[in-house]
Amino acid sequence: MQAKQQSEMHPSRWGDPDRAQALPDTARGMVELVFGLDDRPALVDPALTPSALEPAVLAELAAVVGPDHVRTDDETRRLRTRGKSTPDLLRMRSGDLTDAPDAVVRPGSHDEVAAVLALAGERHLAVVPFGGGTSVTGGLVARREGFAGVLSLDLVRMKRLVAVDHTSMTATLEPGLRGPEAEALLAAEGLTLGHYPQSWEYASIGGFAATRSSGQSSAGYGRFDALVVGLTVATPRGRLELGSAPANAAGPDLRQLILGSEGAFGVITDVTVRVRALPEVKVYEGWRWPSFAEGAAAMRTLAQSGLLPTVIRLSDEAETAINLADPGAIGGEGASGCLMITGFEGTPTAVAAERAAVTAVLADLGGDSVGEAAGEKWSHGRFDAPYLRDSMLDVGVLVETLETATFWSNVDRLYADVKSALTASLGDPSIVLCHISHVYETGCSLYFTVAAKEADEPLAQWHRAKVAASDAMIAAGATITHHHAVGTDHKPWLAQEIGPVGVSVLRAVKADLDPMGILNPGVLIP
Amino acid sequence: MQAKQQSEMHPSRWGDPDRAQALPDTARGMVELVFGLDDRPALVDPALTPSALEPAVLAELAAVVGPDHVRTDDETRRLRTRGKSTPDLLRMRSGDLTDAPDAVVRPGSHDEVAAVLALAGERHLAVVPFGGGTSVTGGLVARREGFAGVLSLDLVRMKRLVAVDHTSMTATLEPGLRGPEAEALLAAEGLTLGHYPQSWEYASIGGFAATRSSGQSSAGYGRFDALVVGLTVATPRGRLELGSAPANAAGPDLRQLILGSEGAFGVITDVTVRVRALPEVKVYEGWRWPSFAEGAAAMRTLAQSGLLPTVIRLSDEAETAINLADPGAIGGEGASGCLMITGFEGTPTAVAAERAAVTAVLADLGGDSVGEAAGEKWSHGRFDAPYLRDSMLDVGVLVETLETATFWSNVDRLYADVKSALTASLGDPSIVLCHISHVYETGCSLYFTVAAKEADEPLAQWHRAKVAASDAMIAAGATITHHHAVGTDHKPWLAQEIGPVGVSVLRAVKADLDPMGILNPGVLIP
């Protein structure tokens, strides 16, 4: 399966325009009942202000990357404007293109990236590295003040599988490869990365690394930062190459300083990742739990027994009832409880053994298997939620997600506090759903989906709810983000999470690697 | 089992003086044959120069930590002088105490550590954090130049189990707890850390964290840096608290910047670690392989199949023949090949299942089980090698270890190159032994033990060999250290490994957190 080029995405919607759809009939009735339908006018492509860049500067850029790879046309600039958070979509739908880059520059190699950075330093241009454009935290909105212009550094030309080491089971990938492209290249070698975030069809290898992405199969394959054994980075200070061994004691692990650096310390120009053999078998199954708490406890037992399957997710009562609304899938019309999805990938022998062990534990703890149909349904629709969000926005329903993580002993409190904060802020009519999708021995993530009737000022409406939820996370001692990264949106809470000394360290590293501050200014660093 | 206080260690030997011994008869004949015996004169406690600190400064320190906890007597200072590398022991044996601290200060809390750092900044004193004193890379040798004196910041009073979270399976430990002390406190809660480096009987929790330690059970429990979920650090810039979740995407993972910081960025005042249930069963087994390469390939297969046991180690032909010389243990007098140790820890059910799976793989690949006796023998003597080194030094045989790691496809080259470099440098008579003791999906460590007839200038003799081996590691693209850390000894090669941009980042972080440069000056940062 090969997704279309990012350049074919619509600027104010998610993904492939051919897959855009009106609200499905199955959902339309419920949405009308809860929120009412408020069809929004058809969207037009909003106009841009002209590029601020002088022709001489554009010529200098063209001398580095070639004239075909410096673009200032409206369509290209529009498609590199912001990311795909709901506020991003709302701004775009309202015609606000103030954050558009002045030019889109497409380097073809590490050396071209380095040369663009050097030129940007000389000409006082801000540089926003661009991979899949799927940020949901404002990671693509560079501060313009103090700069002569903003470049979108589009890594679309850097899509090679640079090296494969079948003995070490590693592969070196360029940053512009999107999820399906990387998997296709690896599949030809009999390998898989196994990294499937919801944004997988569009997000890029460089973005996975820069944002500490975590995929739906994280229990089996690990978070993206756990897959990375090496990195090459172009910084204004020079080239940084890391990854002399799987692990070492040669000082702090600087790989973990680049992972999560969100383009603010440098541009990742290749990533060496641990790979696995392509699974021969993939099987997904549904389980019903009487309550969210009991399902979560079962997840904890699996994690602490070393028995995690490849995929494990658990929806709360509300998400089970609404988002996975197919009563037949979890035990018949009117069945209550919470749906868990388990997935197993690997050789037939390994899958059979792991599935048997997991089944024994879950059944013993009070779970009821509802069979593979529920698992297949989840698997089939696993990348589709952002399309549904667009359909909801089309009828005046604001939909957004946010997520956090904490240690097991704090999960109940965090769940209750964030849910309360969102519900109180959004008022009626609104819906707050939650699932657990990333599980560790010591804790797990919580992922919230919110729907509310769009107010007159939806940006302010959502901002208030986001602030309330984020404050609740930090007050509970949890993280502001498990896998969505910091961007511009999470900066105030990052500052609280890591404290003034942590912020000081980030600033010191930024000042050292990017002394002129040209890289993604305003992103990440509080 | 409770090891003695560090203060009872002999300054120029390893560990408990009561366990010091003459070269065992079993080894004496072979040592005489290979190297000759050259008994060294009995050691005397060398004299120190007086403390450089003014009484007024000592009084200020005493006002912070209490008068009992500022020590300037010779014995206390001698016991905080350098670590336990062979060069450290040779210097001490020769009476060189030039690196002795001027005072040993023992804070009792995070706030006292912070107050000592503030005072040290005012009085221009270098501060060397001291846990177990087991560094083998010069990690306790602070640069004196530019300072009014050197303090050893002994964390011996900070030995609390601060918190246990049985739900999240985490525990918060103070840095002065040594391995056995931490395990005893956790065992009372039914828990284990499972971290057993060779230095375990003396090394401390703070040291494990500061040096990215890796234990003999790393395959089952993980490296120490993989166990850490939270840290509190006292820096001259202020208090740094990290660890809001098992994992997150809230910017770079700053925990991984403190892990491996070797006291140069701050003093770790507590560590929150993932713990496991105390294993009900521990079983160790020996396997014989026709060659080191075949044994290593079997380790790789296990790692890449997700079937690693709790412990897995493999000695090369030379180490099997010499160090584990008990022909009966691996198949009778004159049996050749390589000895592998596998170990399984956990519940009876889990151990039985894992052992069966591992046994099937190893037997299929051509390994021969030699039973549990060889495993028990390894387990029994697993912390004793440093005592044997002292006995060898007593008869004029220089013994030292060094280690590295790389990806699987590079193991053969790295092994050959480092072995050649050591052999060529040390000449005859010398012995070079190697084992693999830490295994990952993508690679493994190589741990070398060297013995050579002591030359007239043994420090220079060893320095030449160390340089040759280290150059070979870097030339092979491997790491300068998998688990011994950087200290002062590895700095030139760290600079090559992470390059000038990596060095620049370390310096920037150092300058930010420790602007006066008082923390372990000369250690870690090239």
Automatic annotation (TrEMBL), chains A, B:
InterPro entries: Alkyl-DHAP_Synthase, FAD-bd_oxidored_4_C, FAD-bd_PCMH, FAD-bd_PCMH-like_sf, FAD-bd_PCMH_sub2, FAD-linked_Oxase-like_C, Oxid_FAD_bind_N, Vanillyl_alc_oxidase_C-sub2
Biased composition (Basic and acidic residues): 10-19
UniProt organism field: Nocardioides endophyticus
Stated name of the protein: FAD-binding oxidoreductase
Pfam families reported in the protein's UniProt record: FAD-oxidase_C, FAD_binding_4
Keyword Flavoprotein: yes
Region (Disordered): 1-22
Keyword Flavoprotein included in the entry's annotation: yes
Lineage start: Bacteria, Bacillati, Actinomycetota, Actinomycetes, Propionibacteriales
Domain named FAD-binding PCMH-type: residues: 97-278
Family label: Belongs to the FAD-binding oxidoreductase/transferase type 4 family.
UniProt superkingdom: Bacteria
Keywords carried by this UniProt record: FAD, Flavoprotein
